[in-house]
Amino acid sequence: MRDTAIPAAGDGIYFDGRVSVRRRVRVALTVSGLEFEDTDGRLLGQWAYSEIQSLNAPANVLRLGKRNNARLERLEIADDALAAAIDARALQIDRSGGLQKRQRIAVIGWSVLATFSLLLLAWIGVPAAAARLTPYVPVALERKLGNAVDAQVRETLDTHRLGVGFECGTSNTGAQSALARMQQPLERAAALGTPLTLTVVRRPESNAFALPGGHIYVFEGLIDKSATPDELAGVLAHEIGHVAHRDGTRAVLQQAGLSFLLGMILGDFIGGGAVVIAARTVLQSSYSREVETAADVYGVALMQKAGGDGRALGTILNKIGGATEPGMKILRDHPETAARIAAINRLASAGKAAAFLGAEDWASLRAICKG
Fold first, then answer.
1. Domain end call among 96, 118, 146
2. Is the same domain home to 212 and 268?
3. What is the DSSP string of 272-308?
């Protein structure tokens, strides 16, 4: 509450804004504002506290003016006690720094609130929005995202800078034909509505992973680890499950945040930064156990629909001990590995299935990276 005690008074200098004459005045502080008189006692002005603003002046002078005044009137106060009294009553005067301090506290408070809101949005809002929006992303747009990310992913994986030699089988037509004969029944059975692109690369890990839009990478190490064509096909079926469920697209939207979500909506994947973010997300993020379990269920069903052995996925997972995607572990520890394999075996139909590839095709496919 403002002080309404006996008004303070003191001396000042007044300029009326018409002529450059200095007038000595007696300044009195009333409940509502300033009043100042000349040495003859004539009232020269009455300024409400709400009208007063501070003007630039030397450190030992309080220079005042009226806001929105066409005339350049000003009042100069050199009396420290009087200046302090005016400062205490006029909201726009802040010689003590109290107003600035309150403004800084307010800015800090709003900044903390804004930061908390963004964190809450990132923790809850973005994943929820990504999960809801992913099913509505057009297939063509998802394919465009995969195409944009593909080159960045390949560059990241090609740590030895092999260039065109990083991809296996480009000049081995027999191996490429064998890979196509493995892909075709799975692709027909899946009936995704978007073509699948399988790429085998020279990496020693027993890994495979799917990009948004149907790009699937298979590592040389996975082919070397597979004893039968059905084991390799089982992993491919699992990855096709991620494509069908659009897990890669959802992961990119969740991890990359609002900026990439906006780019996804607008279909703008030209910016290099967005592509790098998407590529890193695909290579480094981890799917949840629920997502991996859903891909297992899909993979087993797809293998059997394509005429293969659904249990082969469990066999190869037992061999590789988990990783089928760089940075993403399908099986995190031995007890879970056993449980996942048991679940796969329960889902798979009993009985002997025909081999996914003949012996000659399988031999060609296993040699796809040997040339």
1. 96
2. yes
3. HHHHHHHHHHHHH----HHHHHHHHHHHHHHHHHTTS
What pTM was computed for the model? 0.63
Dist. CA 120–CA 291, nearest whole Å? 23
Neighbouring-strand partners of residue 236: none
Query: Does 216 map to a domain?
Result: yes
The domain tally of the chain equals 2
**One digit per residue, pLDDT tens: the chain, 371 residues?**
444 454 588 999 999 988 888 999 999 999 889 999 999 999 999 999 988 888 888 878 899 988 888 788 999 999 888 888 888 888 777 665 555 566 677 777 777 765 665 554 444 555 666 667 777 778 888 888 888 888 888 988 999 999 999 999 999 999 999 999 999 999 999 999 889 999 999 999 999 999 988 999 999 999 999 999 999 999 999 999 999 999 988 887 776 655 555 555 555 554 555 566 666 666 766 678 888 899 999 999 999 999 999 999 999 998 887 544 444 444 443 347 788 889 999 999 877 778 889 999 999 999 999 86
- Asked if residue 125 is part of any domain, the answer here is no
Q: Which tokens hold the place of 91?
A: 């909201």
Last residue of a domain, one of 44, 63, 96: 96
The domain in which residue 187 lies consists of: 137-366
Pairing of strands 9-15, 74-77: antiparallel
Say if CB 143 and CB 208 are below 8 A apart. no
> In 204-333, which ranges are continuous DSSP H helix?
220-225, 229-245, 247-256, 258-266, 272-284, 289-305, 312-320
Same domain, 197 and 320: yes
Please give the Cα distance from 350 to 311 (Å, whole number): 9
